Amino acid sequence: MKTRITELFGIEHPIIQGGMHYVGYATLASAVSNAGGLGIITALTQRTPEALAAEIRRCRELTDKPFGVNLTFLPSVTPPDYPGYIKAIIEGGVKVVETAGNNPQKWLPALKEAGIKVIHKCTAVRHALKAETIGCDAVSVDGFECGGHPGEDDVPNFILLPRAAEELSIPFVASGGMADGRSLVAALALGAEGMNMGTRFIATKEAPVHDNVKQAIVAASELDTRLVMRPLRNTERVLGNAAVDRLLDKERQLGASLKFEDIAAEVAGVYPRIMQDGEMDAGAWSCGMVAGLIRDVPTARELIDRIMAEAEALIRQRLTGMLGT
Ligand SMILES: Cc1cc2nc3c(=O)[nH]c(=O)nc-3n(C[C@H](O)[C@H](O)[C@H](O)COP(=O)(O)O)c2cc1C
């Protein structure tokens, strides 16, 4: 399948693995890239720019296909060493960067000068248009369904994607709620040039996370995610668990006076305990509603091959068949 996204990134299939904290290591990124998609290493999971440089080297040893690095710009009192991470990306010869969070404008000149293609993740059409204006090469449009941070507008992909298609000139991928060949064909029909998946890729053999995490995704239905941190305007879609119940109780009790410190125990620094140690009630962790469509733990290649075969059959048989002769 050839789209503007496969052409832009030099990949075989229009499928991207979004950056994921404590999931997006070289093992998963290289497996996705080797299967013909675009795998992405998550920069901030690496404690230092030196550690990111080592992870990029490791990925290159595992694949000779293109892969990317996610750089998430978070509001923070003591920001990470972004210039250092960007230097590691450029010197590591990475050709694709997925930016997310705050406007990446400040960092674009350095990335562009190094010949790096930038795809910015957005949850609103106005942010996608801004990304286009400042020179991003593509955008990843994340609907309300998505695992992680869906923003505060709550527009699901059936509306958000065609709205993005109406406004954008640069290519975009659909993100949030994507799981299979049906998702890909629907995304293409709505105007996207491919799809980005997060939660689905956690439940793959190569995802370097504890098996409890994969099994929790397989066991979850589409009703099992919760939105947390809405009062802080930092909404995150997470899988429900005991810590999330506690957090939501505090949100209800404290109302508008809620501060980050009140819920720090449930959200700060919990990822290693969940992703590495498999302590499933240690805190809140991002998970999409798409968990309801995930029932197995295939390899990245099995997953991608299956998606492409299903998409092709849908287009050639189901859709074409509906047109008659
Ligand atoms: C466990 C987890 C961690 C994530 N961490 C990040 C992150 O650090 N930076 C980022 O830009 N997006 C992050 N995301 C969002 C994904 O890259 C992707 O946009 C999202 O999962 C798409 O929705 P889906 O889960 O329905 O496929 C994360 C998602 C999950 C599930």
Fold and architecture overview:
This protein has 14 helices and 10 strands. With 325 residues, it is α/β, with parallel strands linked by helices. An 8-stranded parallel β-sheet has the order 1-8-7-6-5-4-3-2. A two-stranded antiparallel sheet has the order 9-10. The site of flavin mononucleotide (FMN) has 29 residues, from strand 3, strand 8 and helix 9. GO terms for molecular function: monooxygenase activity. This is Nitronate monooxygenase family protein. Keywords: Flavoprotein, FMN, Monooxygenase, Oxidoreductase.
Write a concise synopsis of the structure shown.
The protein is an alpha/beta fold and 325 residues long. Helices cover 42% and strands 14% of the residues.
List keywords for this structure.
binds flavin mononucleotide; 10 strands; alpha/beta; 14 helices; TIM Barrel; eight-stranded parallel sheet; two-stranded antiparallel sheet
Topology:
Blueprint: H1 4-9, E1 15-17, H2 26-34, E2 39-42, H3 49-62, E3 67-73, H4 82-91, E4 96-101, H5 108-113, E5 117-122, H6 125-134, E6 138-142, H7 157-167, E7 172-175, H8 181-189, E8 195-197, H9 199-202, H10 211-219, E9 225-228, E10 236-239, H11 242-254, H12 260-267, H13 271-276, H14 300-322
Parallel strand pairs: 1-8, 2-3, 3-4, 4-5, 5-6, 6-7, 7-8
Antiparallel strand pairs: 9-10
Bound molecules: flavin mononucleotide.
Flavin mononucleotide binds next to strand 3, strand 8 and helix 9.
Keywords: Flavoprotein, FMN, Monooxygenase, Oxidoreductase
EC number: 1.13.12.-
Enzyme class: oxidoreductase
Give the beta-strand count. Answer: 10
Summarize the helix and strand pattern as letters: HEHEHEHEHEHEHEHEHHEEHHHH
How would a textbook summarize the main sheet?
A: 8 strands, parallel
Distance between the termini: 24 Å
Under CATH, the homologous superfamily of the largest domain reads Aldolase class I
Q: What would you call the structural class?
A: alpha/beta
- The low-pLDDT segments are none
Bound molecules: flavin mononucleotide
Query: Taking all residues together, what is the mean pLDDT?
Result: 97
* Tally of DSSP helical segments: 14
At the third CATH level, what is the topology name of the largest domain? TIM Barrel
Strand content: 5-15%
CATH architecture of the largest domain: Alpha-Beta Barrel
Specify Rg, calculated over alpha carbons.
Answer: 19 Å
At the first level of CATH, the class of the largest domain is: Alpha Beta
